[in-house]
Design brief:
The chain has 137 residues and is mostly helical. The chain contains four helices and no strands. Helix 2 packs across helix 4 and helix 3 runs antiparallel to helix 4.
């Protein structure tokens, strides 16, 4: 038996838990944005944009961590995650149009993309600080 067996098992368990958290979080985001409008989470000017920025930033970070833990990180992974989530943000905004109290707002999408960029930037920064490149191994 390998000395790293328990460590590999704990990484595998953590990877499964992270994947479950990612799926639950993404489903919760979808559900929240496709129900009739509720009171603002942040009742301040621009609070809605802060929520969009934060939600998509965390989603991007979770996607990148999931990919890393599954050993699938490559030089283009962050760009692919950013592209996928930016497209998802557009689709999410368009699907809100027919929902009572919701609007399709380009500024929401801009906040989504800004959050994605910062989330992935923080992921890349922590990898660099830990001495790891974006390639596996």
């Amino acid at each position: 038996m390998s000395a790293t067996m328990p460590e590999e098992a704990s990484v595998s368990t953590f990877a499964r838990l992270l994947r479950a958290a990612l799926v639950v979080y993404w489903l919760a985001m979808f559900a929240a944005s496709h129900t009739p409008r509720t009171p603002d989470l942040l009742p301040v000017e621009g609070g809605d944009k802060i929520v969009h920025f934060s939600a998509y930033g965390l989603l991007a970070l979770l996607c990148a961590l999931d990919r890393q833990l599954r050993g699938l990180m490559s030089r283009t992974s962050l760009l692919r995650i950013a592209g996928l989530l930016a497209i998802y943000g557009v689709v999410d905004e368009l699907l809100q149009y027919p929902i009572d109290g919701r609007t399709c707002d380009a500024f929401d999408w801009i906040a989504d993309v800004a959050g994605i960029t910062v989330g992935l930037g923080l992921f890349a920064l922590q990898r660099r600080l830990r001495g790891r490149s974006t390639t596996p191994g």
